[in-house]
Amino acid sequence: MTFAAPLEAKSIRFRARSFVAFTLTPEAPMAEWLQGLDHWIGNSPGYFAGRPVLMDLNVLKPAPSEIAALVAELGTRGIRIYAIELEGASLGAELPPLLVGAKEATTDGLLPGRKGGQEGSGKEGKSEGRAPDHRMDGRADAGAAAKGKAGASKTGESEPQVSHYDSGTLMIKAPIRSGQAIMHAHGDVIVLGSVASGSEIVAAGSIHVYGTLRGRASAGALGNTAARIFCRRNEAELLSVDGWYITAEEMEGVSRGKPVQAFLDGEGLRVETLS
Does pTM top 0.85 for this prediction? Predict the structure, then answer.
């Protein structure tokens, strides 16, 4: 006679997960806002691909039918809305869920509130453009604390070697390859190597690249107007500080191929060569 021990059912594990998301905050008139969004996407194709994007509708306050039309409109641009922020709303099952209990990550830490921007001029001077309101927010599910970890888009051998410091500085000791994304919501990012075309760095503080910068760099992503971007050789696809940006085409013949710093000067982005 054989005896079979009863199988024990495995317990279901629920884990809180925090992540960095971008928030779009549409404003009226919608045609003008969408035109600005199209301009941003045109300057940085694939910027929203695979990214978690939230939509804050507390400024626009549209009707449910208008929300559905807006979600569909963004979908045609390759933007997938993960959740919607709208106080007092009740959305149908066909729409993304309402975001409840999220916290916004800022340079001062996690805040219970919300915030909704991004972008230049073609000369070694001020940038004039700014994209539709969207910022990098640290979002956490209700009851979970944001971990604030920076990460690359790939793992294993393709993941850059990084070092964290108590000051909030993230040091990357290897080159950043095409397709990789570094997002650091707690301070500066230092790259000892080069940054390839098609890659991206997003930092709450300043960005220092000691090699050639060919990808996209966005400093001051949480509203730090004092943030700067430094690189030894500027071949960047896009430079952005606190949402103000300048593209490769606008820098051609002015600061391309040179050591530069980018910073906010008044109400615009200035790119200056370093001697």
Answer: no
Distance between CA atoms of residues 62 and 54, nearest Å: 16
User: How big is the chain, counted in residues?
Assistant: 275
Q: Count of CB atoms within 10 A of residue 71's CB?
A: 17
Least-confidence region, from 4-18, 118-132, 201-215:
118-132
Could you write out the DSSP letters of every residue in the chain?
---PPPPPPPPPP----EEEEEEE---SSHHHHHHHHHHHHHHSTTTTTT--EEEE-TTT---HHHHHHHHHHHHTTT--EEEEE-TT----TTSPPBP-S--EEETTEEESS--------SSSS----B-SSEEEEEEE-TT-------B-SS-GGGSPPEEE-TTS-EEE-SPBPTT-EEEETTS-EEESS-B-TT-EEEESS-EEEEEEE-SEEEE-TTS-TT-EEEEEEE--SEEEETTEEEEHHHHTTTTTTS-EEEEEETTEEEEEE--
> What is the β-pairing status of strands 244-247 and 238-241?
antiparallel
